[in-house]
């Protein structure tokens, strides 16, 4: 696993369990769809005024679907739904979230925009 964080963001505080489900999915679904060894990368970077959080893993995108009875696989999308809900609560109207697959990697990416400062009277 590789973790890269822009040094100026070391003190930035994120809501609890915002990134955790993305890492959990990367490991869980990556183990199912990737040739060994599984690679997971976490990157937190400033992009202009925005903050970008990307969790990537080798493998394929697993669509959300109920697990078959007795199947150990759980692809219900609950973790991603929780991430979206946390983003809406903590950063209403100031975030983007996407999960994509390209070149043998799955990327879950969050972009957070700064709050607009309101001018006083």
Summarize the structure.
With about 120 residues, the chain is α+β, with helices and mostly antiparallel strands. It has helices at about 20-35, 80-90, and strands spanning about 1-5, 40-45, 50-60, 95-100, 105-110. The model has no long low-confidence stretch (mean pLDDT about 90).
Notes on the protein architecture:
The protein has 121 residues and is an alpha+beta fold. It is built from two helices and five strands, in the order E-H-E-E-H-E-E. It has helices at residues 20-33, 78-90; strands spanning 2-5, 40-47, 50-58, 95-102, 105-112. It has a five-stranded mixed beta sheet with strand order 1-2-3-5-4, covered by helices on one side. Strand 1, helix 1 and strand 2 (40-47) form a beta-alpha-beta unit. 15% of the residues are buried. The mean pLDDT is 90.
